[in-house]
Structures are given as C-alpha cells and as structure tokens.
Amino acid sequence: MRAVHARPSRRLVPGLPGPSCRSLPSRSLRPRLPPTAPARRPRAPRSRLKAEEPRVSAPTPAAPPPPPTLDDGLSAPLDPRYTFDNFVVGKPNEFAYAAAKRVAETAGMSFNPLFLYGGVGLGKTHLMHAIARCVRQNQPLRRVIYLSAEQFMHRFIRALRQQDTLSFKEQFRSVDVLMVDDIQFISGKDSTQEEFFHTFNALVDQGAQIVLSADKSPTDLDHIGQRLRSRMSCGLVADLHPTTYELRLGILESKAEQMGVPVPPRVLEFIAHKVTTNGREVEGALIRLVAHAQLVGRALTVETAQEVLHDLVRAHDRRVTIEDIQKRVADHFKIRLADMHSARRARAVARPRQVAMYLSKQLTSRSLPYIGKNFGGRDHTTVMHAIRKIEELMAGDPSFAEDVDLLRRMLEA
Fold it and tell me: Taking all residues of the chain, what is their mean pLDDT, rounded to a whole number?
C-alpha cells in the first residue's frame, strides 16, 4: 500500500502572493473596496424660481377706477373753469355762493329747491356748474343731471313724438340731484310746465335735491303757472346783485392771474371803473386788452386801455350821467331835485347831496371840479369832503351802506 505523504502547508503571509497566485493579474492584488458612486458635480441649491429669471415681486393690485358718472348721457357738459375755487366772492354774491356751497357739500336736503336768480353775467351758471362738479367729485354715487330748461323741453318733445314718455319720466325722476338752468325759458309752454311740475313733486317726495336758476325771482316770472311758482319759492331763493367796483376789481385780478399776465394795477382799476355791466363783460374787456397788447406789441397802460376799450368807455359814459344820479338820489331820499343845487345845509338835504356827489365820482368819469359845478357851482374841495364823509359813514353804518349800494345798483342797471 502506497503511503500518501501530506504536503507541508505553507503559511501565507498577508500581502504576499501565494504560489497559486502568480498567474493572476496584478489588479487582483488590490484590496476589494465597496463600490462607490461616481463623483457628481456639486449642484446649486434648488430655488423655486429659475436662475435666469429675476425675482419679481407680486404686482400690487391697481386701485379700482372711480365710479362712472351716473347721468345716462342726459347731463350737459360742465365747463372746467367754473368751480368754487375760481368764483370771486363779494358782497353782491356772497349769500348765493354760501347757499350753493352748502347744497354741494351736504348729502341731505339743505335747501330744497335752491333757486338762484340775477341778471346776465353775474355768476348763476358758474355756481350751477360748480355745484354739479363738487357733488360728482365728493359723492360719485349720487346721480346728477345738469341741463338748461331748453334742453329739458326738447327732450320732452322728443319723447312725445316717439311715444316714449314713460322712459322720459323714469330718467328724470330717478336722479339724486336735478339742476335746470334758465328756467324762465319754459314760460308760456304749458305742456312742458306741467311735466316739470310733476317731475318736481316726484323728486321732492323721494328726497332728491333740486337746483334752479333764472333771470328773475320766482314771483316775478311771467307766464309761469301759479302752482309751479309756488313750488319754486318754497325753498331758498338767493339773488346775485349787480357787481360793485370792488367785486369787478377782484374778478379782474383773478382773471389776470389765471392768464399769467402781469397787468398794472392802474389798468385794472380803470377797467373796473369803466366797465360796470357784469362780470362776464369785465373779463371780456381784459381778454380783449391783453390780446391787443400781445399781438400788436404794445405795453399795458391806461392809455392803451382807453384806446382799445373806447366803445365800452363811451357806452358807460352815456349810460350814467350826473343828472340821472341827482334824480335817482332825490327820489330815494324824498327831497326836491332843486335841493341838489341849493345852498341849504340841513342834514336832510346835505346828506343826500353828498351821496349824489359820491356816486357821481364812482359812476362817471367826470372830474371833481366838473362835479362840483353841477351841484350849484361848489368847489372841488367840497366834493372831496363829501366823498370822504360818505365813505366814513358807509364803513360805520351797514344800513346806510346798503342804501348807497342799492342806489348804485339801480343806476348801473
């Protein structure tokens, strides 16, 4: 039996190749490491927005547009120049101005109706436009209709022709503020008066505000039904008196400032003295003078004003004479016309004579010596004393000032 010899075992030393490992590739000698993931490129932290897009803040919601004016196309356009800020306030119009502003700024019925009356160019339309504009700006949800009485009549006639009076009634009886200018235009138009009367009553019953204007007070309007005149008079009636010298001068200064033209004070005073009809004609005279000076290249002087406004100056001089003033003052104070020329010094005679001298200086272009000559041949110093005396009395006695102002307005009218 063949003996088997066990081969001596060789001790393997770690790190050295054994006898059976010579034919293995050298890479097998490398220690086995756990597989590692391939190296990745570092990534930027994620952002909710793309890197190339700039960060934009959320847009601020736009303010809601103002509510539209609720007039359905019935209201006439408003002149942007006619605002309360541009209205020159003086003694002849301060009451009407205060009443108009109260109505415009008060949501409830302050005075209903408000009836404004006065002559041409004294500011009625200006106040009407100012009321409508103020209400629309401060209370945009209130429905305001402003139109002339002629426009009201034409819309009513068109509704009759189209047999659509129901829509007409709904339009005009669903407003919050109804403003009708020159209401005297519907005088003698019975059908229009009847419709306006019922519209008036319906609006008052539902608490709407009514504002009217005319050239006369409600009681003096001709060919207007008694019922309608009574309705017009039941609210506040405010009149605008003819302009005074101070008010005309204020109008001229305001107009010159709006035009951006430096006008010498003496020129403004000349126009205020010579153009006495109404504020509209006063503004027109200033515009005419400034345009002439700019187009022709002349300086704004009193001499230029006399030349350019010669027709207005002549009309003013023809309109009021010293004799007219003496007659009007004598009738007002119940004295004889001859007392204007007499030497009597009794207060009952001397005071009216002084008033007549004062008005002669204010309303005519006559010199002091000429005025004194027409009052019994008196000296010009006597006329100067009379003027100063009347000015002092007017400043200290409101009742006397009212009498003199009334005489002035009657003479200017």
Answer: 81
